[in-house]
């Protein structure tokens, strides 16, 4: 199977700009959407390029690039909300009635929100860290504070500190990765999105809004998720510490939790083989 960047890249023109994505797998297979996280230089391809070939053996896979991260066309609105809307727009345009979803961090939040709002369209859900509130750990976490510092005044040293907080094994933070993420992070659309999500001023405004709002946070509605859900977590995640998993594990009716040792926030990369086998078993049930 030829699962390279060039052979899998596609684009879809919608009424709100172009959505770019990667596609692999047999046409008659069940659909699996892979939704990426956030942070400097992130893309769907960079999150899942090591996993796409594996999952394409059993599913027709789409790695969707969210608007505003430097690949798909940017749209107005908060990135989490525009990401969810883009997934539904993507599914509608390609005639996908229902799909399983893997979501890394922010992608998991997007997946949870879709499962709450569109229960008939999400068959199964796998989240990788990121979902739920901090229970015992500080908020924002160490990783998010480093992300704020980078977002407020980007430089390479701050990028390296943040990247190191994402993993248990720091040897994964290579010069190639640093350069790749730096070049992508300074894209104007990506920088604007990062400022909206992680800039200190935006974070303070969001905290004030939540303190004065009568609207409950998304995780308070996780009891409405109807689909089977696998919560995948790195035991050494310093971005979304493992205590965050307690709330979704309890509130989502059909949820199970798998914690991977010696693993940080990027479970699909750092615990690749164990993650893939666990998710494959879950999807096959």
TrEMBL record:
SUPFAM superfamilies: alpha/beta-Hydrolases. Keywords: Hydrolase. One of its GO terms (molecular function) is monoacylglycerol lipase activity. One of its GO terms (cellular component) is membrane. Gene3D superfamilies: alpha/beta hydrolase. Pfam families: Abhydrolase_1 (PF00561). Residues 31-271 form the AB hydrolase-1 domain. InterPro entries: AB_hydrolase_1, AB_hydrolase_fold, AB_hydrolase_sf. This is Putative hydrolase. The lineage of its organism: Bacteria, Bacillati, Actinomycetota, Actinomycetes, Mycobacteriales.
């Amino acid at each position: 199977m030829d699962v390279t960047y060039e052979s899998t890249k596609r684009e879809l023109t919608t009424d709100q700009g172009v959505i770019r994505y990667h596609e692999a797998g047999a046409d008659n297979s069940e659909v699996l959407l892979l939704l990426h996280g956030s942070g400097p230089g992130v893309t769907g391809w960079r999150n899942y390029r090591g996993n796409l070939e594996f999952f394409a053996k059993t599913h027709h896979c789409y790695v969707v690039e969210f608007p505003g991260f430097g690949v798909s066309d940017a749209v107005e609105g908060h990135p989490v909300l525009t990401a969810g809307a883009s997934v539904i727009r993507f599914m509608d345009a390609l005639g996908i009635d229902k799909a399983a979803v893997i979501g890394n961090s922010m992608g998991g939040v997007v997946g949870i929100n879709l499962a709450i709002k569109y229960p008939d369209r999400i068959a199964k859900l796998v989240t990788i860290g990121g979902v739920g509130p901090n229970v015992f750990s500080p908020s924002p976490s160490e990783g998010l504070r480093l992300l704020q510092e980078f977002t407020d005044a980007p430089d390479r040293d701050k990028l390296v500190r943040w990247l190191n907080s994402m993993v248990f094994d720091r040897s994964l933070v290579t010069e190639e990765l640093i350069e790749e993420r730096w070049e992508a992070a300074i894209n104007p659309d990506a920088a604007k999105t990062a400022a909206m999500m992680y800039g200190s001023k935006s974070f303070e405004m969001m905290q004030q809004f939540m303190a004065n709002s009568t609207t409950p946070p998304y995780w308070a509605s996780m009891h409405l998720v109807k689909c089977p859900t696998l919560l995948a977590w790195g035991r050494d995640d310093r971005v979304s510490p493992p205590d965050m998993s307690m709330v979704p594990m309890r509130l989502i009716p059909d949820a199970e939790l798998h914690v991977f040792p010696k693993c940080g926030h990027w479970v699909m990369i750092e615990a690749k083989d164990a993650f893939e086998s666990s998710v494959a078993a879950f999807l096959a049930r």
